[in-house]
């Protein structure tokens, strides 16, 4: 009789997706900064995307992180505008980063900079979106995985 209790479990396949779309013409430091800012908003508003806290072998605790991978894509300015419109039309949770945010130095000024521009005039450099896999795939359609 074979004992299957020690078999390797099947990998987890999530029915949701976290995707970040970055404008391809950003500097490396900007890509990293924008990605960090964008995904920080998801965990605060969508507690289901955050897993359990971590602990190392000595019992030292660490903060929880997303329970699933964050996929990072890149595209043109036009691709971001299109993806943003698709995310809005599907009412998916989203975060935006505009070029204006590179010139502000604090949260209050960041929010004011976004608020000062009508939706269809936002100079988007980054977009994070979360939702069902197929809906997120439709939002980022045409973008390519970040190299």
Q: Topology, please?
A:
Elements: E1 16-23, H1 28-45, E2 54-55, E3 61-62, E4 70-75, H2 77-89, E5 94-98, H3 107-115, E6 124-132, H4 133-139, E7 144-145
Parallel strand pairs: 1-4
Antiparallel strand pairs: 1-6, 2-3, 4-7, 5-6
Helix pairs in contact: 2-4
Order of helices and strands: EHEEEHEHEHE
Distance between the termini: 48 Å
- Give the biggest sheet: 5 strands, mixed
How many DSSP H or I helices?
Answer: 4
As an assembly, this protein is single chain
Shape: globular
Total beta-strand segments = 7
Helix content: 25-40%
With strands numbered from the N-terminus, the spatial order across the biggest sheet is 5-6-1-4-7
Strand content: 15-25%
Output the structural class.
alpha+beta
Rounded Rg: 18 Å
What are the segments in which pLDDT stays under 50 over at least 5 consecutive residues?
Answer: none
Mean pLDDT: 92
Overview of the molecule:
The longest helix is centred in the N-terminal third of the chain and has 18 residues. The protein is of the alpha+beta class and about 150 residues long. A 5-stranded mixed beta sheet has the order 5-6-1-4-7, sandwiched between helices. It is about 30% helix and about 25% strand. Helix 2 runs antiparallel to helix 4. The radius of gyration is 18 Å and the shape is globular. A hairpin with a 5-residue loop joins strand 2 and strand 3. The protein starts with 15 loop residues before the first strand and ends with a strand. The model has no long low-confidence stretch (mean pLDDT about 90).
């Amino acid at each position: 009789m074979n004992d299957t209790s020690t078999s390797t479990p099947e990998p987890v396949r999530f029915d949701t997706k976290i995707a970040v779309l970055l404008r391809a013409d950003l500097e490396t430091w900007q890509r990293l900064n924008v990605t960090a800012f964008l995904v920080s908003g998801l965990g605060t508003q969508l507690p289901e995307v955050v897993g359990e806290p971590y602990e190392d072998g000595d019992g030292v605790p660490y903060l929880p992180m997303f329970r699933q991978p964050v996929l990072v894509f890149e595209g043109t300015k036009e691709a971001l505008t299109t993806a943003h419109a698709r995310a809005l039309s599907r009412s998916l949770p989203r975060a935006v980063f505009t070029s204006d945010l590179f010139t502000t130095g604090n949260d209050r000024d960041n929010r004011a900079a976004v608020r000062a521009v009508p939706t269809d005039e936002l100079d988007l450099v980054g977009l994070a979106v979360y939702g069902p896999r197929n809906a997120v795939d439709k939002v980022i359609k045409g973008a390519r995985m970040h190299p």
